[in-house]
């Protein structure tokens, strides 16, 4: 697949320059030299627009043994692929060598797909979802041919800069081809209806990246979750009977994982600022038969109270209320894959550090002495990752970095003035270190730990 067909991530020039200065900082240049640092940065820009070479699902091992879930999943997906392609599909589903509740499914791509003349344009977010196995849902479609009818074969393109006018009949701006599909709706029902459109607009039949769709597949037994997010739950290490706080909990994947790791014994408090996200967490908990989860719509920066009862049920909570705290912080999200483009300004990218620090301060206050705090993000900047660790260690003498188990990512990145020992205790998932377009040669179980989203984990003990 030509790189011109599948471009690197589309960013505003100011954001590209900023990221380049991060990845070519003085400490990195002194350690690896200009050429290697530049090469890593260019690989990062390229790999971010591609999906990882596998799909990771977390299995509900509290409801059934892993092997039973693996066989059920194989059965379900074989049915799905039989329906799509009319051939007997043999799907490889592997277990992870170190993480006991993870299943890995290879993704095939980028494949050679011939484009057709009818073109549908979708938003960048929708395009990214297609690269991970989704069909095109109607709200994601921004342009279609003038006379498009249900049943037409169309090529689907992602609008990288968000410049396509909704309802257009064609678009020549910056875009990326993501595969071919069959229209399931006429143009008129997409753009001429007064009601918001719902349902599948284009069913993908020849995606550039072939991976199974998990829509409605074993909803209580498998949960789509990026591998580093699953690792973060294990690093937190919650135990039965503890009180654990998940500060920015939506959509609830990590919350439910924490409850499972505690064998549903104890209490998991999930906070999030957005009401409908709280409903989603509670729905997930119910589907997974988890009773230890309590979720509240609340701003975690204000979760510490001076005068609440020691075992307060609802937020805010008195200091030292929790045995463990997970702060999976709101962030610039620049590690997400595939991400073909973001229209964010540099100001937006850099706006998260102060909020993360406010949340961190609340987390430290709410944590008991002897308790564990895990801080994580899905971004690649130093300001939101290693610099936050350096700040935390300066600001809170009661905190010390702890070894992480499992530690399958790289160590922390140079550039924030941390010592080699401190960097070794951090876990940064860096797909750019091993990424190349032919990277499918290594066995999947080896690739899985390297070909991830960009992600960061730090684990602290409060003394």
UniProtKB/TrEMBL annotation:
Name the domain of life: Eukaryota
- Name the positions where S-adenosyl-L-methionine binds: 248-254, 272, 307, 328
User: InterPro entries given for it?
Assistant: MeTrfase_RsmB-F_NOP2_cat, MeTrfase_RsmB-F_NOP2_dom, PUA-like_sf, PUA_sf, RCMT, RsmB/NOL1/NOP2-like_CS, SAM-dependent_MTases_sf
A GO BP annotation: RNA methylation
Keyword annotations: Methyltransferase, RNA-binding, S-adenosyl-L-methionine, Transferase
Q: Name one GO molecular function term.
A: RNA binding
List, alphabetically, the SUPFAM superfamilies matched: PUA domain-like (SSF88697), S-adenosyl-L-methionine-dependent methyltransferases (SSF53335)
Catalytic site residues?
378
SAM-dependent MTase RsmB/NOP-type domain location: 147-463
The record's similarity note reads: Belongs to the class I-like SAM-binding methyltransferase superfamily. RsmB/NOP family.
The protein here is known as SAM-dependent MTase RsmB/NOP-type domain-containing protein
Report the source organism. Takifugu bimaculatus
């Amino acid at each position: 697949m030509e790189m011109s067909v599948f471009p690197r991530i589309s960013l505003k020039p100011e954001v590209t320059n900023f990221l380049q200065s991060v990845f070519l900082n003085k400490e990195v240049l002194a350690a690896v030299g200009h050429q290697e640092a530049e090469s890593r940065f260019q690989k990062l820009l390229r790999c971010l627009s591609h999906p990882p070479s596998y799909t990771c699902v977390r299995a509900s091992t509290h409801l059934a043994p892993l092997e039973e879930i693996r066989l059920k999943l194989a059965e379900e997906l074989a049915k799905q692929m039989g329906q799509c392609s009319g051939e007997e599909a043999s799907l490889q589903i592997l277990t992870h060598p170190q993480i006991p509740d993870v299943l890995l499914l290879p993704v095939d791509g980028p494949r050679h797909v011939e484009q057709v003349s009818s073109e549908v344009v979708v938003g960048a977010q929708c395009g990214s979802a297609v690269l991970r196995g989704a069909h095109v849902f109607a709200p994601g479609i921004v342009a279609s041919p003038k006379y498009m009818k249900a049943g037409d074969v169309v090529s689907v393109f992602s609008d990288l800069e968000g410049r396509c006018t909704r309802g257009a009949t064609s678009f020549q701006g910056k875009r990326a081809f993501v595969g071919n599909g069959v229209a399931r709706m006429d143009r008129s029902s997409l753009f001429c209806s007064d009601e918001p459109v719902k349902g599948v607009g284009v069913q993908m039949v020849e995606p550039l990246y072939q991976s199974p769709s998990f829509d409605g597949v074993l909803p209580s037994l498998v949960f789509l979750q990026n591998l580093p997010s699953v690792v973060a739950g294990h690093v937190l290490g919650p135990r039965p009977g503890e009180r654990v706080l998940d500060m920015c909990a939506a959509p609830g994947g990590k919350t439910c994982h924490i409850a499972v790791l505690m064998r549903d014994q104890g209490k998991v408090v999930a906070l999030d600022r957005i009401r409908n996200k709280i409903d989603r967490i509670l729905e997930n908990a119910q589907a997974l038969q988890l009773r230890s989860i309590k979720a509240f719509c609340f701003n975690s920066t204000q979760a510490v109270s001076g005068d609440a009862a020691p075992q307060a049920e609802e937020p805010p909570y008195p200091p030292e209320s929790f045995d463990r705290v997970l702060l999976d912080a709101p962030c610039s999200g620049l590690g997400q894959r595939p991400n073909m483009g973001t229209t964010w300004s540099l100001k937006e990218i850099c706006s998260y550090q102060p909020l993360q620090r406010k949340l961190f301060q609340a987390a430290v206050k709410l944590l008991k002495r002897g308790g564990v705090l895990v801080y994580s993000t899905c971004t690649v900047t130093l300001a939101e990752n290693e610099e936050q660790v350096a700040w935390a260690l300066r600001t809170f003498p009661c905190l010390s970095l702890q070894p992480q188990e499992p530690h399958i990512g790289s160590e922390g990145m140079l550039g924030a003035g941390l010592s080699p020992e401190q960097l070794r205790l951090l876990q940064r998932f860096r797909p750019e270190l091993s990424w190349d377009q032919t990277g499918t040669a290594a066995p999947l179980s080896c690739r899985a730990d390297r070909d991830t989203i960009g992600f960061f984990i730090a684990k602290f003990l409060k003394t």
